[in-house]
User: Fold these one by one.
Assistant:
Number 1:
Amino acid sequence: MQLTHVLELYPDHSVTQMLFKEVKNAAELRQKAVEGKIYAALINPTMLVNPLQVLVAANKAVHLQKIGKMKTRSLYSEIIFNLSPTNNISEAFKRFGISDGDDSVMVVLVHNKQESKLLSDITALVDGRQVQVEDVSSLSDPAKIKKLYKVTPQEEKSSTLLDAVVCRMATKDVM
Amino acid sequence: EVNTAKDSSMALPEFLGKAELLKQGAEARVYRAQFLGKPTIVKERFKKQYRHPVLDEKLTHRRTVQEVRSILRCRRAGISAPVVYFVDYTSHCIFLEEITGSATVRDHITSAQQPDSCPDPQLERLAQRVGQILAKMHDEDVIHGDLTTSNMLLRLSPEDGESDLVLIDFGLSYISALPEDKGVDLYVLEKAFLSTHPNTEALFEKLLKSYAASSKKSSAVIKKLDEVRLRGRKRSMVG
Ligand SMILES: Nc1ncnc2c1ncn2[C@@H]1O[C@H](COP(=O)(O)O)[C@@H](O)[C@H]1O
C-alpha cells in the first residue's frame, strides 16, 4: 500500500510514502515529530498533487544533506521546506506540515534498503486507516495549490498542475 | 556521516556512468536516464581546461542558473518547455523531463517538404505557430540564444490531436528586453533555418509575419533584424 522508491542518484537511500485517512491523533503525531521521537516527515496531503512531488523534495533533501547545504536542521524538515515555493521556513511548516486537527497525513521516510521495522513502527503510531498513496490526488486542493505556487492561467493551459508545481520546487533557489 | 564527502562526489559519476550518452558537446554532455521513475534528460556542463578554474566555475554556474530561469519563465507564460526535476549546482547538472514521443521540427519539415517546393498549408501553419511562440517568448524578454529547428520539438497531444510545440536547449539563453538581442535571436534562426531547409524563404517569411503580428514589440525587433542582416551581408562581402 505504501510506495517505496530507491533514489537513482543515491541508491542506498529509499523514500517510502504512506498515506493515512481518518487520522484521529494528528496532534500527538505532530508532538512526537517535534520532540524527535518520529523520524519521518508528516505532511498535510491537501497541498500534494502527486507522490512525485514528494520524491522531488526528498531527492533534493538527501542531495543537500550529502553536500552539507541543508537550509533546515534535519532531513525531514528539509523535505517539508523543499515542498514550499518560498524560502520562509515557518511558512513551509504551516502549509505543508500537519496541524493538530488534520484527519489525513502523508508520512514520508528516508531509509536504507530493508527497514520494515521502521515502517511498521510508524504504522503502529498512527491512529488511522492506511490507503493507497496514489489516493493523495483525491485529497489535494487544486485551488489552494495554484494560489500558493502562483500557477498562471496561461501555464495551466499548456502544463499539468503537477509539472508546474514540480518545476517551481526544483528551481526556487534561483528565482 | 564519515563518508559524506566521498558519497556525494561518487553518486553522480556512478549515475551518469549507467546513463545513455546522447550528445557530447563542447560545453556539455547530454544523457538519457530514469530519474525519480521518469524518463529524464540530464545535461552536464563540464570543466573547460583552458579557462581559469575560478572563472570557469562562475561562468558555468551562471549558465546553469540562466538555463533554469529561462525555462521557468517560458513555462509561466504558457510556452511549453521541459519540466525541471532537479538541479545540482555542485556538478552543474540539470535534470529535465524527456519529451517522449516527439519529433524535431527539423525532421518534420524535412520529411514534409516536397521537392517541387509548392506551398504546404500544414507547414505554413507550423511556421506560423513557431512565429507566435517566439513572439511570446520575446515578449517575456527570454532570448533563446540558439534557435534552430532541432531545438523545437513537436509532441503529439493525445487529447486534441494538434501537436504541442516544445522549446528545448536553453543552454545559451538569457533575459534581455533589448530589440537588438531579439533581432539577433531571429537572425540566428533564419540562418539555421534556411541552411537546414533549402528553398524555404517563403516559409520563413510566414514565420516572421506571424511573429510580427503576435508580438506587441515586434516592429523594433524586425528593424534590428534587418540591420543585423545588412551587417551580415556586408561582412560576407568584405570577407
Ligand atoms: N527535454 C528533452 N526531451 C527530449 N529530447 C531532448 C530533450 N533535451 C534534449 N533532447 C535531445 O538531445 C539533443 C541534445 O540536447 P541539447 O544539447 O539540449 O540540444 C537534442 O537535439 C534532442 O534531440
Note: Residues 81 and 88 of chain A are 8 Å apart (CA to CA).
Number 2:
Amino acid sequence: MTGTLDNANPTVYEASKERQTTPDDENDDIVDKFDNREVFDLIRNINDPEHPLTLEELNVVENSKVKVDDDNGYVAIEFTPTIPHCSMATLIGLSIRVKLLRALPTRFKVDVTITPGSHASEEAVNKQLADKERVTAALENSHLLEVWPGYPAEVKSPILSTGTVKSANVVRIESMQKGATRETEETPKR
Amino acid sequence: MAAPMWKSALDDYVKTEIDSMAPDVVKLLTDNTISLLELIEGLGKYLISEETSERGRVVKLLAEILHLIPTDKLNATENELLVAYLCDRLKDHHSIQPPSLHGLLALCHSKNLPEGCPEKICRSIFSEVQTQTLSQGDRRIAYNIFSVLLTTSLPELQKIGSDFVLGYIQAMDAEKDPRNLVIAFHCATTIIRNFQLGVFVEEMFEVVSCYFPVDFTPPPGDPNGVTKEDLILGLRGCLAASGQFGQYCCPLLLEKLSSDVTSAKVDSLRTLEAAAKVYGSKCLLEYRTSLFGCIKREVFGSGDEELEAAALLALTAMTTTFSQETIITDSQTCAEEFVSEIWNECSRYLGDDDLRLMVPTCRLLCAVAAGSEVTCCKVLSLVVTRLVQIFYSHPQASDRKAVMESIHSFLRVTRQIRSEKVKKSISEFQNSVYAVVMSAISESNVQLRVAAVQCLDTFLQLPLTLAVTDPPVMAKVLVDRAFTDEDKDVRFSCCSVLSTMAKTDAATLKSVVLPCLLEKLRTKPMDVDGSDPEQHHMVFTALAAISVTTEILSLVVKELVSYLSCLAQMSTGEPDVQSVASCLSVITTSAVSRPDMLTVLYSHTLPELFSLLVSMATDSSHHNSCVHNEDVLQHLTTCVRQIVVHLNEKRLTELCRCLTQLYLHNETAYLSCTPSTPFYPLQTSSPWQQTELITLASPVICSCPVEVLESSLSDYSQQLWSLSLQSDHKLTRRTAAKCLAGLINRWPTGESLLNFLQSSIDTINSVLGSDTVEGRKRAALNQLIWFTKALAMRGHSKAKDFISMLTNLLDDQSIGELAATGFEIILGDFPDVLSKPLGANIRIMYKQRIFVENVGRLKEGFASSPPATKKNYLICLSHMLKILPKQVLLSELPPLFPLMVHSLLCDDLDLQLSTMTILCDLTHDAPDVISKHVDTLVPQLLQLCTHPSSMKIRIKALRCISALCVLPVHLLLPYKTRVVRSLEPVLDDRKRLVRREAVTARSEWCLIGDPS
C-alpha cells in the first residue's frame, strides 16, 4: 500500500441489519441448513484493505451474489471491486477465501470470483483466486491477517500518516521524570 | 516538652539534620506556654548568626511553625513584622530563599494580613527571586503565593498595575513542569482578566501561548495526577481570558489548523470555540474567511468524528459572536454577511448532479443556524426550499434519505431556538416540508420511511401554523402506518410521533387518533382476514404511547379497564386479556412519576381493578374467566405496585386500611359493586380464584407503615401462614409465602416476632421430619426459604439458625436440590417483594455476609456428603457465585475453583450452564486464576461443545473457549492445534446459532500466536 489510494472517496452503502433470531433457530430439534445469508454474514464484516469500511459498506460483496448449496456442499461468491482497475482485487478475493476456509466446514467447495464485467483483468484475478497454492500461501501472510475484523483501526489503515506540528513552538512541557532530574542540576544564585 | 527545654532542642535542630521540632513548639505556642515574642527572642541568636547554614535552618524552622499554627493566631502587627523580616531574607544568601518563600506562603494564608503586605511580598519576590533558578518544589511555592494573594487580595494587587504584570511574566517565563504549569495557568488567567495589561499584552500572550498546543503524556502510574486535559483546559482559560489576545491568537490557531496532527487541530478548534465570544466580531471578521476554510476542510474531509464535532462547535461559536455585532454595513448585519459568504461557497454543493458533499454541507449550515436567531432564520430561508427541490429531483432512495435526514437536522436546530422571528420563518417553509415528509412516508424504501417519520416527529414539536385540514389527514396516515407498515421500525416510530402529537395537538388526537385506536382495540384480529396478530398488538403499543397527558391517560385507562371487564366474561383462550393487562402495566409504570396522573390512577383505576377482580372471584359462574390467569394477575400486580411505590404516606395508609377491611373482614366499601358471595381471600377453605388475589394486595400490605398494620399483623401472619402451607393452589402458596416474608422483614423486633418464628420453625421441622407427601414438604421448604430471606435481609439474629436448617437439608435426597436452589431466592433480587422501593428492611452487604459465613460449611459439606447429593452443594455454590459482586468473587475464587471444575463434570444442565457463565466472566476479570486450570478446562469445554441435546450448553462452551483467548499466549499455544481441529466439526453443527459462536471461537484461536 503506497500513499495514494486507488479510490479515495468511495460511495458508502448502508450495512444490512443483524439477522433476526427466530424461534426455530432456538429449537434444538430443527436442523438449520446453511443458507446464503449465513455465508454472507461470514464475509460482510471483512475490512477493506484501503478504507476503514467493511466490504459490505463498499458494496464489494452483496447478499444476492452469495450462492450456497448445502446438500451438495458448494458455495459460490461473486465480488465487485469498487473500480474496474482496483489493484486490491486479488487481496480482497484472498481475504474472502481465507475467512471461509476457517469458518466453513471442510465439506464445502468454495469458488470466489469477480462479478463478470466489473474488473479490467478479471480472468487473471479469477485464475489466481482458484490457485490452491496461492491460497495456502495467503494463510501464512501476516498482511492478510490484518484485514480481519477485530483488529484495531490503526493497524488496518497505515495510510493515515501522522506528521509533526510545523510550528515555532519554543517550550515543550517536560515529563515528570525530566522535571525531577532538572532539580539536581541547580546552580546557586550567589 | 517543658518551656525551658525547647531552647536546648532548638540547638539540636540547628546543629543537626533532625526535623521533628516544629510540632512541639507549635503546641507550646497554641496553649500559650510561650509567646511569639519569646520564641523569636529564642531564635534570635541563630537568626543573626554568621553561618549561612544556621540561618537557613532556623528560617526553615520558623516557616514550618508558621504553617502549623492556626491561621488566626497572629495579629496584624505580628504579621507585618514577619512579612518584612522574611521579605528581607529573600535578599540574603540564595540558600535561604526557599525557606523564606515557604514562610511567606504561610503568612499569605493568615487571616489578619494587614494592607500593604501582599504588595510588599509580591514586589520582593519580583525583585529578589529569579524563579528559573529555583527547584520545582520552590517554584511551586512561589506560584502558590501568587495564587493565594490573587484570590484573597486582588484589589490591592491591582493597584500595582503593570509592574505586577511584568513581574509575573518574568516569574512564569520558561516554566516547564506540568505540576507548576497548572497553577501558573490559573494565576495567569486571573491576571489577564483583572489587570490592565497595557503594553505587555503581547508579552503576556507569548508567555502562555508558547505552550500551545499542549503536548504532554503523563508517565505511567503518575502519582501527581496531572493530566493532559488539565493543562489544555488551563491554557485554554488563559487564551480565552482577554479580547486583546485575539489579534495574536487567531494567526496561531490558523497555523496549528494547517498542521497534520489531529490533537493540535482539535485543541485549536476548541480554543476558538471558547474564545470566539471574548475576541469579539471585530477580530474574527479579519480572519473569518481563513478560519471558515479550515473548518470546512475538517468537516468535508477529515472523517474523524471528534475533529468534525469540534469544528462545527467552533463555527457555531463564531456565528454567535457575529450575531452580537449590531453594526450594519451595506444593509446587512455582520452575521448575515457571514451567512451569505458561506452560502456563496456552499450552495454549489447543493446542486443537482452530485450529492456527495450535500450531507457535510448541511452539517456546516446547521452549525451556522445554531449560532443565533438571526442566522437560523437566514439559513432556513436559503436551505430548506433547496433541499425540498433536491428531494423531488432525485428519485433514488438513498439520496432521498440523505435529504430527509438533512432536513431533520435543520428542524432539530430550529426546535432549540424559540422566538417570534423563527416562528415566522417556520411558517414560510412548513407547508413544503410537510408535503415532502408526507410523500416520503409512503415511499417503498424502509430506511427512507423511518427517516421521514422521525423527521415528522421533530417537525411536530415546532410552533406550527398548519392549515386546519392537515393535522387530521396526518394523524390518519400515521395511525394507518403504525398498523399496516411492514417494517417494525416504521411502526414504532409512528407510535412515538403519535406520542408527540398527544403533547402538542391533543384536540386532533382525541378527535381522530383515539376513536380510531379504540375501534381497532375492539376488532378481533381473527375478524379481519389476513391481518397479522402482531399488528393487532400495535394497538396496545400505540395506546401506551399516547397516554402522556392526564386527560388522555384517564380516557385510555378507562377504556382499557372496561375492555378488560368485557373480556373477563369470556372463559379462556383470550390472548387479548394478557395484552390489555400488560398495556395497563406499561402505562402505569410510565405515568406514576407525574403527580396528577398518579391521582387519576390511585382514585379511579385502582378501585375499578379491585372491583372487577373481586366480583369475578366471588361469582362462581365466572370461575372459568380468563382473568384468573397467572400472567394477567402478574401484570395487574405490577400496576398496583407501581402506584403504591409512588403514593405518599397518607394515601398509602388509607389504601392499606381499605384493603385490610376488604381482605380480612369482607367489608366491601372500597369496591364499586357488592360481590354476590362473601369475599374471604385469606381462608384456606375459599376457592383458589379468591385466594390468588393476595398477590394484588401484597405490595400494599408489605410496604405500608408498620404502625398501621399493628392490630392486624397477627391476623395476616396466621392466615398467610396456613395458606402458604395448606392451600392446594400453587400460585396462592407462593404468593402467600412471599407476602408473609414481606411482613416478617418489617415486623418490629420483639417478643411477638420471636414467638411467631419459634412456632413456625417447629411446624416446619415437624413437616419436614414426617413422612408426608412430598408436596407438603416442598411447601414447607418454600416457606422456610422465604423466611430465611426476609430475616437474612434485615440481619436478624435468627437468620443463622434458618440458614443452617437449609444447609442441613442439602443432604436430603428428595428435597435437597430444592433447598439448594433456594439460595438463588435468598440472594436474588425480586421487584415484586422485599425490594428497596417497597420499603423493605435491607441491611447493607447482606449477600456478601451470607456467602462469607457459609462458604466454609458448604465446602466441608461437599467433601463429606455421599455422591448422590454432592451436586446440591455445587448448585448452591453456583447460585452464590452467580449473584455475588465480582470484587468479592475475585478474592474468594482460588479455593473454590476446583469445585467449579467439578460442576462442569456434573451431569446437570443448569449447573453446567451457570458455571460456564461465571467462568466466562471470570476469564476476563481473573485470568491468572483461570490460567492454572487451563489443562482441565480445555478438554472439558471441548467436550461440551458437542453436547448432544442442549444447544445452550454448546453455545456457552464455545463462548468460554473464545474467552480463553485473553490468557497469555504461551499458555494457549500448546492447545492451539487441538482446539482448532476439534472445533472444525462444530462449524457444521445443526444449529446456526452454535455455528456462529464456533466461527468466532475458531477464528480467534486461529490467530493465537500469529505475528501481527
Note: Chain B has a mean pLDDT of 87.
